[in-house]
Amino acid sequence: EFRVKVVSTGAVVPVMADQSVAEALKQSGIELPVSCEQGICGTCVTRILEGVPDHRDFFLTDTEHAAGNIFTPCCSRAKTQLLVLDL
Ligand code: FES
Protein backbone atom coordinates (compact mmCIF):
# COMPACT_ATOMS: atom_id res chain seq x y z
CA GLU A 1 0.00 0.00 0.00
CA PHE A 2 1.16 3.51 -0.79
CA ARG A 3 -0.46 6.89 -1.22
CA VAL A 4 -0.83 9.36 -4.04
CA LYS A 5 -1.25 13.08 -3.61
CA VAL A 6 -3.20 15.21 -6.07
CA VAL A 7 -1.26 18.44 -6.14
CA SER A 8 -4.13 20.67 -7.35
CA THR A 9 -6.40 19.81 -4.43
CA GLY A 10 -3.96 18.49 -1.83
CA ALA A 11 -6.00 15.28 -1.59
CA VAL A 12 -4.02 12.26 -0.40
CA VAL A 13 -5.46 8.96 -1.57
CA PRO A 14 -4.39 5.52 -0.30
CA VAL A 15 -3.83 2.87 -2.97
CA MET A 16 -4.58 -0.63 -1.67
CA ALA A 17 -2.68 -3.67 -2.91
CA ASP A 18 -5.67 -4.91 -4.91
CA GLN A 19 -6.42 -1.70 -6.77
CA SER A 20 -4.69 0.52 -9.30
CA VAL A 21 -3.81 4.16 -8.78
CA ALA A 22 -6.51 5.05 -11.33
CA GLU A 23 -9.11 3.02 -9.40
CA ALA A 24 -8.12 4.56 -6.08
CA LEU A 25 -8.39 8.07 -7.53
CA LYS A 26 -11.76 7.26 -9.08
CA GLN A 27 -13.07 6.14 -5.67
CA SER A 28 -12.07 9.57 -4.41
CA GLY A 29 -13.95 11.27 -7.22
CA ILE A 30 -10.96 11.97 -9.44
CA GLU A 31 -11.49 10.43 -12.86
CA LEU A 32 -8.46 9.94 -15.06
CA PRO A 33 -8.73 9.13 -18.74
CA VAL A 34 -8.09 5.40 -19.06
CA SER A 35 -8.54 3.00 -21.92
CA CYS A 36 -6.63 -0.29 -22.02
CA GLU A 37 -5.88 -0.43 -18.26
CA GLN A 38 -3.00 -2.76 -19.10
CA GLY A 39 -0.14 -0.36 -19.69
CA ILE A 40 -0.31 -0.57 -23.47
CA CYS A 41 -2.08 2.51 -24.86
CA GLY A 42 -0.60 5.43 -22.93
CA THR A 43 -3.98 7.15 -22.46
CA CYS A 44 -3.50 7.50 -18.71
CA VAL A 45 0.09 8.82 -18.67
CA THR A 46 0.45 11.21 -15.74
CA ARG A 47 3.27 13.44 -14.57
CA ILE A 48 4.95 12.73 -11.24
CA LEU A 49 6.26 15.65 -9.21
CA GLU A 50 7.69 13.69 -6.27
CA GLY A 51 8.29 10.04 -5.46
CA VAL A 52 9.56 7.04 -7.40
CA PRO A 53 7.22 5.01 -9.62
CA ASP A 54 7.30 1.24 -10.01
CA HIS A 55 6.63 0.98 -13.72
CA ARG A 56 4.46 -1.91 -14.91
CA ASP A 57 3.60 -0.65 -18.39
CA PHE A 58 4.72 -1.55 -21.90
CA PHE A 59 4.16 1.92 -23.31
CA LEU A 60 6.90 4.20 -22.00
CA THR A 61 10.47 3.90 -23.23
CA ASP A 62 13.34 2.67 -21.08
CA THR A 63 14.57 6.25 -20.94
CA GLU A 64 11.20 7.47 -19.70
CA HIS A 65 11.08 4.67 -17.14
CA ALA A 66 14.51 5.64 -15.88
CA ALA A 67 13.65 9.35 -15.73
CA GLY A 68 10.67 8.50 -13.52
CA ASN A 69 8.74 11.73 -14.04
CA ILE A 70 5.78 10.16 -15.84
CA PHE A 71 3.97 6.87 -15.26
CA THR A 72 0.81 4.94 -16.15
CA PRO A 73 -1.61 5.00 -13.19
CA CYS A 74 -3.77 2.24 -14.72
CA CYS A 75 -1.19 -0.37 -13.78
CA SER A 76 2.05 1.08 -12.42
CA ARG A 77 2.71 1.45 -8.73
CA ALA A 78 5.14 3.20 -6.39
CA LYS A 79 8.49 2.35 -4.84
CA THR A 80 8.11 5.20 -2.35
CA GLN A 81 5.35 5.64 0.25
CA LEU A 82 4.01 8.67 -1.62
CA LEU A 83 3.73 9.79 -5.21
CA VAL A 84 2.81 13.42 -5.81
CA LEU A 85 0.90 13.63 -9.09
CA ASP A 86 0.51 16.66 -11.32
CA LEU A 87 -3.28 16.39 -11.40
FE1 FES B 1 -3.71 2.30 -21.34
FE2 FES B 1 -3.03 3.18 -18.89
S1 FES B 1 -4.99 3.10 -19.80
S2 FES B 1 -1.71 2.60 -20.52
TrEMBL record:
<protein>
    <submittedName>
        <fullName>Vanillate O-demethylase ferredoxin subunit</fullName>
    </submittedName>
</protein>
<feature type="domain" description="2Fe-2S ferredoxin-type">
    <location>
        <begin position="2"/>
        <end position="87"/>
    </location>
</feature>
